[in-house]
Write a structure and sequence with these properties.
globular; 227 residues; 43% helix; DNA polymerase, domain 1; alpha/beta; 6-stranded parallel beta sheet
Length: 227
Amino acid sequence: MGEIKGLVFDLDGVITDTAERHYLAWKRIAHRLGIAIDREWNERLKGISRTESLELILAENPTLLLDSEEKAQLLKEKNAHYLELIAEITAADILPGIPELLEEAKNAGYRMAIASASKNAPLILERLGLSAMFDAVVDPESLKQNKPHPEIFEKAAQALGLETQECIGFEDSLAGIEGIKRAGMPAVAIAIPIFAEWLPDIEVTATRELNLKEIVREVTMKERVEG
């Protein structure tokens, strides 16, 4: 592994917590369809695309057959409601420890990218006042595959002009951790209680525990030992 030069972040649950707003928007759509979902069920939607999320909800009622036009309308309605809910987002909604981490990384010369399934990532970053912090935001529309496929993380590294092994990925979902590892990046897991096949290089229980120097040092030492 070469020197770490870049950092790649998921957005929801890593930079800010928009999960509750996503949940409320999806719950409204599900209720219209006669499908009940709760916050525990909503955990299944972490890290996956809007279209995949709708398909998971529809799978709760196999007798409900919708054509592509009806599904597209539901996706449009969900996003419209979500945009209403995030209209009030401000810098106060940035997760603890993240402003300091980003500032330190910027001052140290690390290049940074957002690798999120959210099509609203640029808008959210603008509302948070963080747009200038990132050198690239991967457009989910440009992807052929969604997480846990590594494509989004590979594109993030490419957008930064770096190799994947020169970047560290930050995620709060199992799908995201798998994607990071499959891309060949060291992975930092945030608030993920249980892991399956793909294990992160570093685990923290909350963003406030993130320490950039320690993360880079641990990742570098681990690669030296394993390499």
